[in-house]
Amino acid sequence: MDLTRPMERYVVHWGEMGARWGVSRSVAQIHALLYLAPRPLTAEEIADTLSIARSNVSTSLKELQGWGLATMVHVLGDRRDHFETEKDVWKIALKIVEQRKQREIDPTLGTLEQCVREAEEDPSTPRDAAERMAAVHDFLANVSVWYDQVKGLPPPVLQKLVRLGARVAQFVGRKRG
Amino acid sequence: MDLTRPMERYVVHWGEMGARWGVSRSVAQIHALLYLAPRPLTAEEIADTLSIARSNVSTSLKELQGWGLATMVHVLGDRRDHFETEKDVWKIALKIVEQRKQREIDPTLGTLEQCVREAEEDPSTPRDAAERMAAVHDFLANVSVWYDQVKGLPPPVLQKLVRLGARVAQFVGRKRG
DNA sequence: TGGAGATTTCAGTTTTTTCTGAAACTCCAG
DNA sequence: CTGGAGTTTCAGAAAAAACTGAAATCTCCA
Predict the structure, then answer these.
(1) Mutate to test the interface with A, among B3, B4, B175 (most CBs of A within 10 A)
(2) Per-residue model confidence as pLDDT tens digits over A137-151
């Protein structure tokens, strides 16, 4: 696919961003490309457009599919696989958060629980340390539960909430005050 | 400093987590260590405890200070620098988010603005593509403004909001409905 | 002023991650 | 079957990131 200057810039920047957040450059670039593309692309088109190896595209697409950020589709009369991505930014964001939660936060909660339990049993671990670990655990658990509730809300409602911003705190304050 | 088994496990896990989120292992481990430590530690103690080079500790501490996650303090009668970290998990979280916003989101907003502007001027860039870039920009801008409002709320209020979870949406819905 | 303790810098090494290209595999039409 | 288009796998190359140790710098005090 042909990339105009601004599109290229977007894709490159998105690659950098991905890298800073623990996703490989290629994966992020491919996602950005699919996001801008007017139609599903084949792996080869992607490789050509971004100048990366065909095999790299294959691997990266698999990873994107694992994140739920790319889906394979077929075009009538074409034997090749084509790929596209969600275009709704809110849905994209929710998927990313969901995945990171599943892959990192949830396992961390498990580990922290064990740490806290062991720390409480172990007489040589200072009480303070155990309490601090517990504080981190509780924090993550709270945020996790919050997210599970919020993720179900339809994007427009989420948008409304975000637009309201801190004023939500006042609503809530009044309700309880 | 002596690390008991559970503490060691905590520190190691936190190191892994850091690595997955774009912070070097050492930096994350040092932060975890300072978080658990009962008193400010010297760079040398940190190096010994974590078995990493003294110079690495120096660099990492500087980075942590840059994030606002470690502060230098002095102990009476001791010439060496000692380091400690915030113990309130909410405050730690807010600092991290604040920094990532400043370092990554804000510059990204700038880039996206330019991309969108150029894309609108450039006749060879499809209208669709320009609109999609704009959608990402607007999304990030919204979240950014939201965060700026929310970060000022005192941690206890934030906690309350998180505990309320999705029910906040209903409050808001009723208020407007 | 000099020198010991403390810290930082930085060039080079090690480790980790990412990417490539060739080979292997799959699937289908002829 | 057989051939070719399409895709995946994987061992090794390349690139990027993290880490080390030695030397330079700083700082305080006798």
Answers:
(1) B4
(2) 999 999 999 999 999
CA pair distance B151, B36, nearest whole angstrom = 25
- Taking the alpha carbons of B87, B89, B95, B100 in that order, is the dihedral positive or negative? positive
Which residue in B17, B44, B45 sits closest to B29, CA to CA?
B17
In sequence order, which residues have a C-beta less than 8 Å from that of residue B74 and are 6 or more positions away? B81, B82
Burial class (CB within 10 angstroms; exposed 0-12, middle 13-18, buried 19+) of B143: middle
Q: Which residues pair with B82 in a beta bridge?
A: B42, B73
Residues in chain A with CB shorter than 8 Å from the CB of B163 are: 142, 146
- pTM assigned to the model: 0.94
As beta bridge partners, residue B83 has: B41, B72
Angle subtended at Cα B19 by Cα B15 and Cα B21, rounded to the nearest 5 degrees: 120
> Per residue in B117-139, pLDDT tens?
999 999 999 999 999 999 999 99
CA-CA distance, A27 to A14, in Å (whole number)?
Answer: 10
**Given this model, what pLDDT does residue B172 score?**
75
